[in-house]
Amino acid sequence: MSDKATSGKGKQQRLVWTLQMVKDRCVEEGDCWLWQLGLSSGGYPQARIDGRARIVRKWVYDVLLNKRRPVDSVVRCSCENKLCLSPAHLVHGTQADAVRDSYTSGARCPVEMTAKRRANIVKQGLTKLDMAKAQEIRSKASTQSKTQLAQDYGVSLSTVKSVVSGRYWGSPLAKSAFEWRG
Ligand SMILES: [Zn+2]
């Protein structure tokens, strides 16, 4: 970091101005500051700051608020709004915390996400099955052998077993967020 504003006063002014600068680019909603400008590919506020594209929330936390956090942690927003940059809401946590919270808060809807991912693998031709076929297999499994079903649907025996057990093409709500499979 090369910074010409090294005097205490200069630094203080820069800090105040810059937090204000962030706020000026947000709309206040309740306690949240919701960013109105560019976003990263992941949907987080992104801006060119000091000549570099930065994730704004991380920059606000690390630089403006000058808070320390473990190297492997991520900056999160306690309100779980991706657009929020409110200094009062920025906290640090592990990547796993962030993922878990996004599920429990509903920011990631298990049903929606699973449906999307499944539509994707069908579209890309990565699977011979779809939900309708999986349900057929499950209903036929009570009367037909799994080996026969594997032949009929052109998939492996282990795939048939996983479909029947609900591990593949089962309900996204039946399992924990971390165990889903296409
Ligand atoms: Zn917030």
Can you tag this structure with a few keywords?
single chain, 182 residues, alpha+beta, Homing Intron 3 (I-Ppo) Encoded Endonuclease, Chain A, two-stranded antiparallel sheet, 7 helices, 6 strands, elongated, disordered C terminus
Approximately how much beta-strand content do the residues carry? 5-15%
Number of domains: 2
* Spatial extent as radius of gyration: 24 Å
Q: Which overall shape is indicated by the principal axes computed on the Cα atoms?
A: elongated
SSE class? alpha+beta
Per DSSP, the total helix count is: 7
Show unreliable segments.
Answer: 1-6, 175-182
The profile of the biggest β sheet is:
2 strands, antiparallel
| Range of helix content | 40-55%
> In sequence order, what are the helices and strands, one letter per element?
HEEEEHEEHHHHH
Q: In CATH's first tier, which class of the largest domain applies?
A: Alpha Beta
What is the count of β-strands? Answer: 6
CATH architecture of the largest domain: Alpha-Beta Complex
Bound compounds, each kind once, are: zinc ion
Record the strand order, biggest sheet: 1-2
- Give average pLDDT, whole number: 80
Would you give an account of this structure?
- By secondary structure, the chain is an alpha+beta fold.
- The chain has seven helices and six strands.
- The chain has a two-stranded antiparallel sheet.
- It is elongated.
- The relative contact order is 0.08.
- The structure holds zinc ion (ZN).
- Zinc ion binds next to loops.
